[in-house]
UniProtKB/TrEMBL annotation:
Source organism of this protein record: candidate division WOR-3 bacterium
UniProt cross-references to InterPro entries, sorted A to Z: Asp_de-COase-like_dom_sf, Asp_decarbox
Post-translational modification as stated in the protein's UniProt record: Is synthesized initially as an inactive proenzyme, which is activated by self-cleavage at a specific serine bond to produce a beta-subunit with a hydroxyl group at its C-terminus and an alpha-subunit with a pyruvoyl group at its N-terminus.
GO cellular component terms, A-Z: cytosol
Protein name per its UniProtKB record: Aspartate 1-decarboxylase
Enzyme Commission designation: 4.1.1.11
Amino acid sequence: MYYKVLRVKINRAKVTGKNLYYEGSVTLPSSLIRDLGIIPGEAVLCVNLNNGARFESYIIEGEKDGEVILNGGAARLGEIGDELLLLFFSYLREEEIKDHKPKIVRLDDRNRPCGR
């Protein structure tokens, strides 16, 4: 049996841009993607702390440090300056769960990691 467990949690990602006329996705800085082991195209559950919206999308790499952009339909679910929780999950077997520890990072006002 497999269980869906939290793999990565990004706390307080601040929306820096919106692009409604895009296929759809959430843009994150490539450095953050690399450091947390996120795969471009990977599914992400987004929780907007400002308005309570919860939506699923996928990740694409951004070109600038600090950018967090809502693209496509997701652009309707947040405003620039809103804070997001970004949740990434894995499916693990029961025997793998005991050794599993999710990566949890909090971002500062410039979307730079500042601790757990």
